[in-house]
Amino acid sequence: MPAFIQKEKVAAVWAGIVLLLGSNPVLGQTAATATVVGSVTDPSGAPVSGAAVDLTGLSRKETRH
């Protein structure tokens, strides 16, 4: 087998190893979900029907409607 073909095979094996090791952190990521339960009331304590609520995450400053 010519030396350049053997070098290409070794390079391909190393590239595969690097790709496998580099993809490992992706497997540990999970989707974050949460549930918010509560009620919206006016200053007198009466419920407010149809109120719009915005939630803002403190770490990423993302807002959900």
C-alpha termini separation = 64 Å
- Low-pLDDT residue spans: none
Biggest sheet, open or closed, and with what strands and sense?
Answer: 2 strands, antiparallel
Count the DSSP helices: 1
- Summarize the helix and strand pattern as letters: HEE
Q: Whole-number radius of gyration? A: 27 Å
Strand segment count: 2
Going across the biggest sheet, name each strand in turn.
Answer: 1-2
Q: What helical percentage do the residues reach?
A: 25-40%
Q: Mean pLDDT across all residues, rounded? A: 81
Structural class: mainly alpha
Strand fraction equals: 5-15%
Shape: rod-shaped
Main traits of this protein?
65 residues, mainly alpha, 2 strands, 38% helix
Describe what you observe in this structure.
The chain has one helix at 3-27; strands at 55-56, 63-64. It is mostly helical and 65 residues long. A two-stranded antiparallel sheet has the order 1-2.
Give a brief outline of the structure:
With 65 residues, this protein is mainly α.
List the helices and strands and how they pair.
Blueprint: H1 3-27, E1 55-56, E2 63-64
Antiparallel strand pairs: 1-2
